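Take a look at the protein record below with the fold in mind.
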Amino acid sequence: MNGLRLLGTGRALPEKALDNDAMTQYVDTSDEWITTRTGIRRRYFCAENETTTTLAIAAAQRALENAGLDPQAIDCLLVATSSGEYVMPSTACMVHKALSLREDIPAMDVGAACAGFLYAVETARALLIARGGRHALVIGAEQMSSLLDMSDRNTCVLFGDGAGAAVFSLEADAEYESVCGVRGDMAIRVGGPRREQPMAMDGQSVFRFAVSAIPQCVQQLLGKAGLALEDVDWVVCHQANQRIIDASVRRLGVPAEKFYKNLDRYANTSAASIPIALDELREQGGLATGMRIIMVGFGGGLTWSGIMMRV
Protein backbone atom coordinates (compact mmCIF):
# COMPACT_ATOMS: atom_id res chain seq x y z
CA MET A 1 0.00 0.00 0.00
CA ASN A 2 1.01 3.63 -0.33
CA GLY A 3 2.14 4.65 3.12
CA LEU A 4 3.99 7.54 4.70
CA ARG A 5 7.47 7.55 6.16
CA LEU A 6 8.64 10.20 8.62
CA LEU A 7 11.59 12.21 7.29
CA GLY A 8 12.00 15.02 9.81
CA THR A 9 10.44 16.89 12.70
CA GLY A 10 10.58 20.31 14.34
CA ARG A 11 8.94 22.22 17.17
CA ALA A 12 8.55 25.79 18.36
CA LEU A 13 7.46 27.20 21.70
CA PRO A 14 6.79 30.71 22.97
CA GLU A 15 9.49 32.36 25.04
CA LYS A 16 7.24 32.74 28.10
CA ALA A 17 7.05 29.67 30.37
CA LEU A 18 4.66 29.55 33.32
CA ASP A 19 5.03 27.00 36.09
CA ASN A 20 2.09 25.99 38.24
CA ASP A 21 2.88 28.61 40.87
CA ALA A 22 2.51 31.30 38.19
CA MET A 23 -1.07 30.17 37.54
CA THR A 24 -2.06 31.28 41.05
CA GLN A 25 -2.11 34.87 39.77
CA TYR A 26 -5.17 33.93 37.70
CA VAL A 27 -7.11 31.39 39.78
CA ASP A 28 -7.28 29.79 43.22
CA THR A 29 -4.98 26.83 42.63
CA SER A 30 -1.61 25.40 43.62
CA ASP A 31 1.23 23.36 42.22
CA GLU A 32 0.03 20.37 44.26
CA TRP A 33 -3.56 20.67 43.01
CA ILE A 34 -2.53 20.83 39.34
CA THR A 35 0.24 18.23 39.45
CA THR A 36 -1.71 15.53 41.28
CA ARG A 37 -4.75 15.88 39.01
CA THR A 38 -3.04 16.33 35.65
CA GLY A 39 0.71 15.69 35.81
CA ILE A 40 1.30 19.18 34.39
CA ARG A 41 4.07 21.31 35.89
CA ARG A 42 4.69 23.93 33.20
CA ARG A 43 3.19 25.44 30.04
CA TYR A 44 4.04 28.16 27.53
CA PHE A 45 1.88 31.17 26.64
CA CYS A 46 2.38 33.43 23.64
CA ALA A 47 3.50 37.03 24.08
CA GLU A 48 2.02 39.83 21.95
CA ASN A 49 4.48 39.21 19.11
CA GLU A 50 3.81 35.46 19.01
CA THR A 51 0.87 33.73 17.34
CA THR A 52 -0.25 30.37 16.02
CA THR A 53 1.22 31.36 12.67
CA THR A 54 4.65 32.44 13.92
CA LEU A 55 4.97 29.21 15.89
CA ALA A 56 3.85 27.14 12.89
CA ILE A 57 6.42 28.81 10.62
CA ALA A 58 9.28 28.25 13.06
CA ALA A 59 8.36 24.59 13.62
CA ALA A 60 8.05 24.00 9.87
CA GLN A 61 11.44 25.54 9.14
CA ARG A 62 13.07 23.25 11.68
CA ALA A 63 11.28 20.19 10.31
CA LEU A 64 12.42 20.95 6.76
CA GLU A 65 15.97 21.47 7.97
CA ASN A 66 15.88 18.24 9.95
CA ALA A 67 14.54 16.37 6.93
CA GLY A 68 17.22 17.88 4.69
CA LEU A 69 14.51 18.88 2.22
CA ASP A 70 14.21 22.02 0.11
CA PRO A 71 10.86 23.82 0.61
CA GLN A 72 10.28 23.58 -3.15
CA ALA A 73 10.04 19.79 -2.78
CA ILE A 74 6.86 20.03 -0.68
CA ASP A 75 3.79 18.83 -2.57
CA CYS A 76 1.11 19.63 0.02
CA LEU A 77 0.85 21.62 3.25
CA LEU A 78 -1.66 21.04 6.01
CA VAL A 79 -1.93 22.86 9.32
CA ALA A 80 -3.99 21.36 12.13
CA THR A 81 -5.27 24.13 14.38
CA SER A 82 -8.30 25.39 16.28
CA SER A 83 -6.75 28.75 17.13
CA GLY A 84 -5.73 30.45 13.91
CA GLU A 85 -5.77 34.24 13.96
CA TYR A 86 -8.21 34.53 11.06
CA VAL A 87 -11.13 32.69 9.51
CA MET A 88 -9.40 33.59 6.27
CA PRO A 89 -6.66 33.53 5.17
CA SER A 90 -5.97 30.17 6.71
CA THR A 91 -2.92 29.61 8.85
CA ALA A 92 -1.70 27.28 6.10
CA CYS A 93 -1.81 30.08 3.54
CA MET A 94 0.28 32.35 5.75
CA VAL A 95 2.78 29.57 6.43
CA HIS A 96 2.90 28.85 2.70
CA LYS A 97 3.87 32.45 1.97
CA ALA A 98 6.49 32.60 4.72
CA LEU A 99 8.19 29.41 3.49
CA SER A 100 7.96 30.41 -0.22
CA LEU A 101 6.47 27.06 -1.17
CA ARG A 102 5.38 26.33 -4.75
CA GLU A 103 2.06 27.82 -5.82
CA ASP A 104 0.79 24.64 -7.49
CA ILE A 105 0.19 22.72 -4.24
CA PRO A 106 -2.79 22.49 -1.88
CA ALA A 107 -2.48 24.29 1.45
CA MET A 108 -5.26 24.27 4.03
CA ASP A 109 -6.14 24.12 7.70
CA VAL A 110 -7.65 21.03 9.32
CA GLY A 111 -9.95 21.47 12.30
CA ALA A 112 -10.31 18.32 14.40
CA ALA A 113 -9.19 19.70 17.76
CA CYS A 114 -6.62 17.54 19.55
CA ALA A 115 -6.91 14.79 16.94
CA GLY A 116 -6.20 17.35 14.23
CA PHE A 117 -2.57 16.50 13.54
CA LEU A 118 -3.34 12.86 12.72
CA TYR A 119 -6.41 13.87 10.69
CA ALA A 120 -4.08 16.15 8.75
CA VAL A 121 -1.46 13.42 8.23
CA GLU A 122 -4.08 11.06 6.80
CA THR A 123 -5.51 13.86 4.62
CA ALA A 124 -2.01 14.64 3.33
CA ARG A 125 -1.52 10.99 2.37
CA ALA A 126 -4.82 11.00 0.47
CA LEU A 127 -3.88 14.20 -1.36
CA LEU A 128 -0.50 12.84 -2.40
CA ILE A 129 -2.09 9.66 -3.71
CA ALA A 130 -4.89 11.49 -5.54
CA ARG A 131 -2.88 14.35 -7.01
CA GLY A 132 0.59 12.89 -7.35
CA GLY A 133 3.62 14.08 -5.48
CA ARG A 134 5.81 12.67 -2.77
CA HIS A 135 6.40 15.06 0.14
CA ALA A 136 3.96 16.50 2.67
CA LEU A 137 4.55 19.08 5.38
CA VAL A 138 2.08 18.65 8.24
CA ILE A 139 1.95 21.07 11.17
CA GLY A 140 0.05 21.13 14.44
CA ALA A 141 0.01 24.66 15.87
CA GLU A 142 -2.04 26.22 18.66
CA GLN A 143 -2.33 29.39 20.68
CA MET A 144 -4.65 27.83 23.22
CA SER A 145 -4.16 30.74 25.61
CA SER A 146 -6.27 32.86 23.24
CA LEU A 147 -9.27 30.55 23.80
CA LEU A 148 -9.12 30.23 27.58
CA ASP A 149 -11.21 31.74 30.35
CA MET A 150 -8.41 32.62 32.74
CA SER A 151 -10.86 32.68 35.65
CA ASP A 152 -11.83 29.01 35.14
CA ARG A 153 -9.32 26.87 36.98
CA ASN A 154 -10.76 23.68 35.53
CA THR A 155 -9.53 24.63 32.06
CA CYS A 156 -6.95 27.43 32.16
CA VAL A 157 -4.33 25.35 33.99
CA LEU A 158 -4.56 22.50 31.47
CA PHE A 159 -3.47 24.12 28.23
CA GLY A 160 -0.41 25.65 26.62
CA ASP A 161 0.75 27.13 23.33
CA GLY A 162 3.16 25.58 20.86
CA ALA A 163 3.70 24.06 17.43
CA GLY A 164 5.15 20.88 16.03
CA ALA A 165 5.78 19.93 12.41
CA ALA A 166 6.70 16.82 10.47
CA VAL A 167 7.80 16.11 6.92
CA PHE A 168 6.56 12.86 5.37
CA SER A 169 7.31 11.02 2.14
CA LEU A 170 4.84 8.80 0.29
CA GLU A 171 6.37 5.40 -0.42
CA ALA A 172 4.79 2.37 -2.04
CA ASP A 173 6.28 -0.10 0.43
CA ALA A 174 5.98 1.97 3.63
CA GLU A 175 4.25 0.22 6.51
CA TYR A 176 1.19 2.29 7.43
CA GLU A 177 -2.22 1.80 9.07
CA SER A 178 -4.78 4.38 10.15
CA VAL A 179 -8.14 4.70 11.89
CA CYS A 180 -10.27 7.74 12.64
CA GLY A 181 -13.74 8.60 13.85
CA VAL A 182 -16.07 11.17 15.30
CA ARG A 183 -18.89 11.27 17.82
CA GLY A 184 -20.89 14.49 17.75
CA ASP A 185 -20.63 15.75 21.32
CA MET A 186 -20.38 19.19 22.98
CA ALA A 187 -18.28 17.99 25.93
CA ILE A 188 -15.58 20.43 24.76
CA ARG A 189 -16.66 23.68 23.12
CA VAL A 190 -15.34 27.11 22.31
CA GLY A 191 -16.36 30.02 20.12
CA GLY A 192 -20.12 30.12 19.77
CA PRO A 193 -22.11 32.11 17.19
CA ARG A 194 -19.82 35.14 17.43
CA ARG A 195 -16.64 33.21 18.22
CA GLU A 196 -16.60 34.97 21.59
CA GLN A 197 -17.19 32.15 24.05
CA PRO A 198 -14.06 30.89 25.83
CA MET A 199 -13.36 27.20 26.22
CA ALA A 200 -15.69 25.11 28.35
CA MET A 201 -15.24 21.43 29.06
CA ASP A 202 -17.05 18.59 30.80
CA GLY A 203 -13.95 16.99 32.30
CA GLN A 204 -15.55 13.73 33.43
CA SER A 205 -17.15 13.07 30.05
CA VAL A 206 -13.89 13.80 28.27
CA PHE A 207 -11.97 11.50 30.61
CA ARG A 208 -14.39 8.60 30.00
CA PHE A 209 -14.19 9.14 26.25
CA ALA A 210 -10.40 9.36 26.18
CA VAL A 211 -9.67 6.25 28.25
CA SER A 212 -11.82 4.24 25.86
CA ALA A 213 -10.61 5.91 22.66
CA ILE A 214 -6.90 5.28 23.23
CA PRO A 215 -7.10 1.48 23.76
CA GLN A 216 -9.67 1.22 20.98
CA CYS A 217 -7.40 2.98 18.46
CA VAL A 218 -4.36 0.97 19.50
CA GLN A 219 -6.18 -2.35 19.26
CA GLN A 220 -7.75 -1.49 15.90
CA LEU A 221 -4.39 -0.54 14.40
CA LEU A 222 -2.74 -3.71 15.71
CA GLY A 223 -5.62 -5.80 14.42
CA LYS A 224 -5.38 -4.31 10.92
CA ALA A 225 -1.64 -5.00 10.83
CA GLY A 226 -1.79 -8.43 12.48
CA LEU A 227 0.67 -7.32 15.16
CA ALA A 228 0.89 -7.23 18.96
CA LEU A 229 1.80 -4.23 21.09
CA GLU A 230 5.13 -5.92 21.80
CA ASP A 231 5.96 -5.29 18.12
CA VAL A 232 5.66 -1.51 18.62
CA ASP A 233 8.55 0.59 19.91
CA TRP A 234 6.60 3.67 21.02
CA VAL A 235 3.04 4.81 21.57
CA VAL A 236 2.76 8.60 21.33
CA CYS A 237 -0.63 9.81 22.54
CA HIS A 238 -2.10 13.27 22.57
CA GLN A 239 -0.69 14.79 25.75
CA ALA A 240 -3.85 15.81 27.59
CA ASN A 241 -3.65 14.46 31.11
CA GLN A 242 -1.37 12.01 32.89
CA ARG A 243 -4.35 10.20 34.44
CA ILE A 244 -5.81 9.56 30.98
CA ILE A 245 -2.60 8.02 29.68
CA ASP A 246 -2.03 6.00 32.85
CA ALA A 247 -5.59 4.63 32.77
CA SER A 248 -5.14 3.66 29.12
CA VAL A 249 -1.89 1.87 29.92
CA ARG A 250 -3.67 -0.17 32.61
CA ARG A 251 -6.47 -1.11 30.23
CA LEU A 252 -3.99 -2.30 27.63
CA GLY A 253 -1.88 -4.12 30.22
CA VAL A 254 1.48 -2.98 28.86
CA PRO A 255 4.57 -1.36 30.42
CA ALA A 256 4.06 2.36 31.01
CA GLU A 257 7.52 3.04 29.55
CA LYS A 258 6.20 2.27 26.05
CA PHE A 259 4.01 5.39 26.22
CA TYR A 260 5.97 8.60 25.70
CA LYS A 261 4.91 11.47 27.99
CA ASN A 262 5.99 15.10 28.05
CA LEU A 263 2.82 16.88 29.18
CA ASP A 264 4.53 17.84 32.43
CA ARG A 265 6.65 20.30 30.42
CA TYR A 266 4.16 21.63 27.87
CA ALA A 267 0.62 20.93 29.18
CA ASN A 268 -2.09 20.23 26.60
CA THR A 269 -1.13 21.90 23.32
CA SER A 270 -4.05 20.35 21.44
CA ALA A 271 -3.16 19.61 17.77
CA ALA A 272 0.49 20.46 18.47
CA SER A 273 1.05 17.89 21.20
CA ILE A 274 1.84 14.80 19.10
CA PRO A 275 4.30 16.49 16.71
CA ILE A 276 5.99 18.26 19.63
CA ALA A 277 6.40 14.88 21.34
CA LEU A 278 7.74 13.31 18.14
CA ASP A 279 10.34 16.03 17.76
CA GLU A 280 11.41 15.82 21.38
CA LEU A 281 11.65 12.03 21.16
CA ARG A 282 13.75 12.29 17.99
CA GLU A 283 16.00 14.94 19.52
CA GLN A 284 16.64 12.70 22.52
CA GLY A 285 17.69 9.85 20.25
CA GLY A 286 14.59 7.81 20.97
CA LEU A 287 13.50 7.50 17.33
CA ALA A 288 15.75 5.33 15.21
CA THR A 289 15.18 4.47 11.56
CA GLY A 290 12.97 1.43 11.27
CA MET A 291 11.21 1.85 14.59
CA ARG A 292 7.48 1.20 14.59
CA ILE A 293 5.32 3.82 16.34
CA ILE A 294 1.65 4.27 17.10
CA MET A 295 0.20 7.76 17.43
CA VAL A 296 -3.24 8.36 18.95
CA GLY A 297 -5.13 11.65 19.02
CA PHE A 298 -8.44 12.43 20.72
CA GLY A 299 -10.28 15.64 21.45
CA GLY A 300 -13.18 18.00 20.96
CA GLY A 301 -15.82 17.02 18.47
CA LEU A 302 -15.49 14.40 19.81
CA THR A 303 -12.80 13.22 17.41
CA TRP A 304 -10.20 10.48 17.49
CA SER A 305 -7.55 9.13 15.16
CA GLY A 306 -4.69 6.65 15.20
CA ILE A 307 -1.76 5.99 12.87
CA MET A 308 0.84 3.22 12.96
CA MET A 309 3.96 3.64 10.85
CA ARG A 310 7.69 3.08 10.69
CA VAL A 311 10.08 6.01 10.96
Observations:
- The chain is about 35% helix and 30% strand.
- The chain has a mean pLDDT of 92.
- The first strand starts at residue 3 and ends at 12.
- Residues 203-225 form the longest helix (23 residues).
